[in-house]
Amino acid sequence: MPVGSSIILGTGSYAPERVLTNGELAQIVDTSDEWILTRSGIRERRIAAPGEATSDMAVQAALRALADAGLGVSDIDLLILATFTPDLRLPSAASIVHNKLGLPQTVASFDLNAACSGFIYALDTADAMLSSGRYSRALVIGAEKMSSVIDWSDRTTCVLFGDGAGAVIMGKSEDSNRGLAGTKVGTLGNGVDLLCIPSGTDTISPSRDPVASGGQFIRMKGREVFKLAVRGMEESSRNILEQHGVLASHIALVIPHQANLRIIEALAQYLEIPMERFFVNVDRYGNTSAASIPMAMDEARRARRIKSGDVILLVAFGAGLTYGSALIRW
Question: Which end of the chain is less enclosed by CB atoms within 10 A, N or C?
């Protein structure tokens, strides 16, 4: 399996202090700990503090990734922030993170929105930009404040999501045996209405109040998304394994998007990879969208679930409907 030109130099993650348990949710919506746990595997999630923005969480994850890599802000010349919950509609959350970190003015910074697949899309983009030779080190972040787009009276969605951020530092690989081997991303554009926030600049009429109608919140057709997520993640995983001549038995650890434990278990069954080789933290954080894979990757590293030379598979599926996978030799 030849590796690419990019390598992960450091990882970092951040979760807000506020823990929201299933029991607490049962006090505000018609649900129970058993109902949530059996359907999603989620026990609790983190919720941003009042006034804590996506950019604030992104900054904390970025600082930890920089420290892990032994680098400073002056060493970065590219910032990509995967998110669909930016602080403001304009400017980008990446610009705000850029300012809060004190990055040099020469650093290119922008947001990337591919929902739950956003981090893998961002890895793919950063790898291509580093490979161009015009950039040396990239700060790639996945950060979401899901609590800002949740209808807390809708038990089909409010129990699933949480807030958080994860980040990696990417650089050019000088070791032909280590680095990002490849990525595979795509979109099933015919499923836009299955997971969306209905109100937008082109869908709000002057006579219709999007807040009153609840159009500013996530709406999801759960059964359809579940089926497509399992199929999409399985196909994406098989495609990238075949593309790089890697057998499922060669994978040391799978870090999937942490949407639902049942989806992860189904993926393990179809790929014939034991659950012991899947990293799972959805029980503690819920679905943090673009933040879920980098948060899990950082936790896996710090728990020593990833060792030098390991082949790691990342795979995600999200609104759009987007999908993505990546192979990394650590």
Answer: N
CA angle 79, 84, 86 (to 5 degrees): 70
Q: How confident is the model at residue 222 (pLDDT cuts 50, 70, 90)?
A: confident
Is 116 marked active-site? yes
pLDDT tens-digit map of 71-125: 999 999 999 999 999 999 999 999 999 999 999 999 999 999 999 999 999 999 9
**Cα of 16 vs its chain's centroid, Å:** 16
pTM (global) more than 0.90? yes
In this structure, what DSSP letter does residue 278 have? Answer: B
Active site residue 244: no
Give the Cα separation of 37 and 11 in Å (integer): 29
Catalytic choice (22, 98, 113, 116) = 116
Asked if 181 and 4 count as a contact pair (C-beta separation under 8 A), the reply is yes
Is 287 considered catalytic here? yes
Catalogue the E-assigned strands of 27-136: 44-47, 78-82, 108-112
Q: Are both 134 and 219 inside the same structural domain?
A: no
Same domain, 85 and 197: no
Looking at 158, 257, 260, 281, which residue is catalytic? 257
